[in-house]
């Protein structure tokens, strides 16, 4: 059984999808030990607490200096010694100490088909605004390992979603979440928890 730490910043629908998948048994061999947010008002924290999961907020606003925040956050994470860190709508750019400590054991869900609409400044609704502004006909979501770049780590799973005429960023975001994110994030956790994911030279191989 692997231990998961899920990092969140907002609504927590991806966290919900993961908790539901664990409860229904479509994800096996894993349990969520802790949910940590940089935002004390994140609804995701409520979702976790309702499931009896430790829900902790560590906000940069509570520290005089960024380094102290990063230290406190990492110390808290370390206390749970997670096997896998899942970024489920965690909108803080990860810092070196955390990435190195959990190297190869951090995954992120991004709401586009990487390498489109990713990297610095592309998060949340902005990703869908950019996709609509470019006029793409297909978008989607990606689960990838986190390395020291922004959205540059090895890709684990992707799922495409059609853009429809008249879409708003909000309607597109909703479709991408429902059809792609909530499917591939739990799936990726299940594959990793069951030792079906390996990485060679930055490329992921999945053995089903
Ligand atoms: C999701 O769409 C996720 O892909 C995105 O934030 C949203 C969080 O929603 N993440 C990023 O943009 C990361 N670059 P949620 O809190 O309801 O899961």
What would you say about this model in short?
It contains 6 helices and 9 strands, in the order E-H-E-H-E-H-E-H-E-H-E-E-H-E-E.
Can you characterise this structure?
This protein has 6 helices and 9 strands. The chain has helices spanning 13-24, 43-50, 66-79, 96-101, 125-134, 169-193; strands at 2-8, 30-37, 54-57, 84-87, 106-110, 138-145, 155-162, 197-200, 203-206. The protein is globular and about 45 Å long. The strands form 2 sheets. Strands 3-2-1-4-5-6-7 form a 7-stranded mixed β-sheet, with helices on one face. A two-stranded antiparallel ribbon has the order 8-9. The longest helix has 25 residues, at 169-193. The chain has a single domain (2-206), classed as 3-Layer(aba) Sandwich (Rossmann fold), CATH 3.40.50. It starts with a strand and ends with a strand. α1 links the parallel β1 (2-8) and β2. α1 packs across α6 (169-193) and α5 (125-134) crosses α6 (169-193). By secondary structure, it is an alpha/beta fold. Bound molecules: glycinamide ribonucleotide. Glycinamide ribonucleotide binds next to α1, β5 and α6.
């Amino acid at each position: 059984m692997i231990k998961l730490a899920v990092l969140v910043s907002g609504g927590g629908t991806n966290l919900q999808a993961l908790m539901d998948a664990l409860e229904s048994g479509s994800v096996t061999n894993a349990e969520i030990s802790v949910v940590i947010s940089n935002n004390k008002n994140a609804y995701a924290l409520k979702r976790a607490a309702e499931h009896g999961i430790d829900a902790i907020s560590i906000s940069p606003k509570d520290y005089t200096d960024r380094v102290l925040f990063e230290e406190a956050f990492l110390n808290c994470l370390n206390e749970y010694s997670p096997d896998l860190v899942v970024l489920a709508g965690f909108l803080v750019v990860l810092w070196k100490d955390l990435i190195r400590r959990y190297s190869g054991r951090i995954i992120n869900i991004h709401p586009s088909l990487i390498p489109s609409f990713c990297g610095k400044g592309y998060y949340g609704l902005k990703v869908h605004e950019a996709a609509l502004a470019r006029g793409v006909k297909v978008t989607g979501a990606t689960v990838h390992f986190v390395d020291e770049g922004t959205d540059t780590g090895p890709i684990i799973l992707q799922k495409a979603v059609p853009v429809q005429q008249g879409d708003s960023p909000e309607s597109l975001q909703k479709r991408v979440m429902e059809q792609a994110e909530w499917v591939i994030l739990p799936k990726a956790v299940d594959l990793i928890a069951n030792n079906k994911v390996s990485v060679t030279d930055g490329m992921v191989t999945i053995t089903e």
